[in-house]
Design goal:
Alpha-D-Glucose-1,6-Bisphosphate, Chain A, domain 4; 2 domains; eight-stranded antiparallel β-sheet; globular
Length: about 200
């Protein structure tokens, strides 16, 4: 009788799935490590906040931007700050009210009242927040109220024991906004938001 052992078909399939999962996980780590360029990493380490307009690559009347900041804290600690929706009103002054309407393990339905600038009325809307990718990504999408479209994400990337936080915002108000107001919002408000989150996390 041969001493060779041949696994059952079911066990063999489990082994294949295990090895494929391991390879995919490894590739995911490699991709995450390369997500930030060396030049951007150097800027972030100097304390700079990197902003970028997304509008040229969007369709129709959509406008958008993203910002990145390096926070001296773990993704878990950063997550606790951005996940506590009702406390964000104390961190980000332009939010006049934030109220959690519903909350489950993976989702939140949240009402927001946002004052973008003195020239516009207070924008009131409700978003559905998707938190299934815990400590990695929070996605949000408008489901009621102002804005023809509003969606985006918070992304948390581990970096040398700390966290690179990326915020992405894409919207269509449904009416025209003068370009100087949009530019001021992207150039001033986004860095202020990222600095506020950074300070709230590091000083907590």
């Amino acid at each position: 009788m041969s001493d060779c052992y041949f696994p059952s078909k079911k066990l063999f399939l489990k082994l294949i799935i295990y090895f494929l999962t391991s390879i995919i996980s490894c590739l995911g780590v490699c991709f995450e490590a390369k997500a930030v360029s060396e030049s951007d990493a150097a800027k972030l380490e100097r304390g700079e906040i990197i902003t970028k307009s997304l509008t040229p690559q969007l369709k129709g009347n959509e406008k958008g931007a993203e910002a990145q900041v390096l926070i001296q804290a773990t993704p878990e600690k950063v997550w606790k700050v951005i996940d506590d929706q009702e406390k964000l009103v104390k961190i980000i002054p332009k939010f006049k009210k934030i109220k959690v309407l519903e909350k489950t393990e993976n989702y939140q339905k949240v009402y927001n009242a946002l004052k973008v600038c003195p020239f516009l009325p207070t924008l009131k809307y409700t978003v559905l927040i998707d938190e299934r990718e815990k400590y990695r990504r929070i996605r949000y999408n408008k489901i009621d109220g102002c804005f023809s479209k509003l969606y985006g994400s918070w992304e948390l990337e581990p970096y040398k024991g700390n966290t690179i936080l990326k915020y992405r915002l894409i919207f269509d108000l449904g009416f025209h906004i003068p370009s100087f107001i949009r530019s001021n919002g992207f150039n001033k408000d986004l860095p202020e938001i990222m600095n506020a989150i950074k300070n709230a996390t590091e000083n907590n």
